[in-house]
Amino acid sequence: MTAPRIDALQYANWSEKIFRQMRLGNVDAVHVTITYHENFRETVRNIETWNRWFEQYPERIFQGFTVDDIALAQRSGRTAIFFGAQNPSCMEDDIGLVEVLHRLGLRFMQLSYNNQSLLATGCYEAEDTGLTRMGREVVAEMNRVGMVVDMSHSGERSTLDAIEQSTRPIAITHANPSEWHPARRNVSGRVLDALSQSGGMLGFSLYPHHLRGGSDCTLGDFCEMVARTAARVGVDRVGIGSDLCQDQPDSVVDWMRAGRWTKARDYGEGSADSPGFPPMPDWFRDNRDFETIAQGLRAAGLGDAEVAGIMGGNWARFFAESFGAVGSGQREAAQ
Fold first, then answer.
1. Domains along the chain?
2. Residue 244 pairs with which residues in a beta bridge?
3. Nearest residue to 206 via CA among 270, 275, 281, 288
4. 306 contacts: CB under 8 Å, gap ≥ 6
5. Averaged over 156-163, what is the pLDDT?
6. Model confidence at 137: pLDDT above 60
7. Is the Cβ–Cβ distance between 6 and 14 less than 8 Å?
8. Which residues, listed in sequence order, are joined to residue 202 by a DSSP beta bridge?
9. What is the pLDDT of residues 13-24, one digit of tens each?
10. pLDDT given at position 270
């Protein structure tokens, strides 16, 4: 069986068209955002919506729970969908809901989304105080049940705290090195080094605000950045986390960034005059273009085995290490 093709983050306006494009792009597994600021009951309602899609399009998608579902997706010509949360609002202030959400299929949870949460500081706060007392307890519970700690929208100190606190490798599912492009959401060399040394994973983002040159970023520039980062942190510690928000209306940006925490509008990255989604680069419009990235990585000097790892094999290994409710010692096993 060939190496899988995995995208570690998408938040699309889901439709049969997108599910069909996943198959045309040979995408075997996708970590999808099912919740931002929704509370527990609202998150369950979103899961109900996904259950209807699984019923309607069983020949294209199904819910993934373990790494074995990636192989099932390859054998059956479908895409395994793994649930994730971009904010801990779904667990409210109840640590017991971490296990409940895991049993419902949640496999990733960010400890913060741009702002301070009950668990950690977001990357848009002026002061990063690190993991809170509750944050440390929730990380331990996520480790116990097999839910990935995702720090994609968190501040640097909080991220370093999470790497140190977690007994299992964490992930930054969708970001790029800040030395390549200094977006607030991109990550420093210090974080990259700590992440790789602990066995964690970085997913390279294709969201234009995270790219040098924005929507005009070239395939060559992106792939050369991937190759340099892989040389620094280890080619087995990186993958793709496209942050594809395909077909979303611009109004969704308001929910993502402002949620319920402010009466004002928070436009975050990009211009306040253009708060919508920027155009994707012309070499990555949707799921059909993953092969273009693979070709670009080869052109940047990476070998076939290295490209196969970046395009999905590394995430498959990480999923195998992360999703099971196993004991401590995972960091040592991953190194």
1. 6-334 (3.20.20.140)
2. 10
3. 281
4. 230, 235, 297
5. 98
6. yes
7. no
8. 172, 238
9. 999 999 999 999
10. 53
Tell me the DSSP string of 142-199: HHHHT-EEE-TTB-HHHHHHHHHH-SS--EE-S--BTTTS--TTSB-HHHHHHHHHTT
For the stretch 277-300, pLDDT in tens is: 899 999 999 999 999 999 999 999
- Please classify residue 20 by burial: count the beta carbons closer than 10 Å to its beta carbon, then call 0-12 exposed, 13-18 middle and 19+ buried: middle
272 pLDDT above the threshold of 50: no
Reading the block at residue 181, the tokens are 């492009």
What pTM value is reported for the model? Answer: 0.94
SS3 240: strand
Has residue 196 got a pLDDT over 90?
A: yes
**Is the CB of residue 240 less than 8 Å from the CB of residue 311?**
yes
Amino acid at 291: E
Residue closest to 235 by CA, chosen among 151, 329, 310 = 310
β-pairing verdict for 29-35 and 79-85: parallel
The three-class DSSP label of residue 332 is helix
End-to-end CA, the chain: 25
Kindly give the interhelix angle for 189-197 and 219-233, rounded to the nearest 10 degrees: 50
Grouping H, G, I as helix, E, B as strand and the rest as coil, residue 270 is coil
In terms of residues, how long is the chain?
335
